[in-house]
Amino acid sequence: MTQIVQMIQKDIGNNDKIQLTSWNRAYSETLKKSNHLLFTIARIAQREELFHWIGPIAFNNIYLYKHKANTKEIKTLQDAKNVTTIDAGPTTNAAYMILKEKGFTNLSDLSSDIGSLKNLKNGRVELLALGEYNLLNKALQEKIDHNEFENTGILVYKYPLYLAFSKDTEEAIVQKWQESFKKLQKSQKLENFIKDELEKMSYDTC
Asked: What's the distance, CA 6 to chain centroid?
């Protein structure tokens, strides 16, 4: 959602540099440091009081995917609880938090999403939690054919995507960003970027 952030920055005269880093590091720093903005992030109950929220920008659905060579019948969350391992991303990932809360004990302890499709293909994990818009771009990143994978149809959750400021960010800063975002919504410029931006996202940016 970089273009949207840049549009807001331009509107309010903000010249702060956007830094690309790992999800775990970005999440941790936004929790610990003031005046930090994290994007994009799923707004879920477990995070509600941790940040100031700007949005919603869009919605995405997280499903469980498997490799087509896996012939197991996996159609329900209960079926998914019985597989060996599920890659739901790092422990700071919303999919991990939600599945953990649903009683899943077979979640992998992988620290990032690097090579997640390859792990799925080679059987290191049996299922992968992934946004419905994100398979193609993920496959391009890993240089693997996206047609090798299929959506099980098991919905982990539908989530709204937000920008999130660290909790101790000055109220005036948050308000300025929120007002600019509302102007962007009314101008309808937002819709021109949403689908393309979602398709560029990696699944762990939530």
From this structure: 19
Residues 94-124: tens digit of each pLDDT: 899 999 999 999 999 765 566 889 999 999 9
pLDDT tens-digit profile of 14-32?
999 999 888 889 999 999 9
Task: Say how far apart CA 156 and CA 105 lie, in whole Å.
Answer: 15
The 10 Å Cβ neighbour count of residue 103 is 8
The per-residue DSSP string of 14-56 comes to --PPP----HHHHHHHHHHSTT-EEEEEE--GGGTTTEEEEEE
Strands 127-131 and 37-42: unpaired
State which H helix or E strand residue 78 sits in.
helix 77-81
Please name which of 108, 112, 137, 111 lies closest in space to residue 124, comparing C-alpha atoms.
108
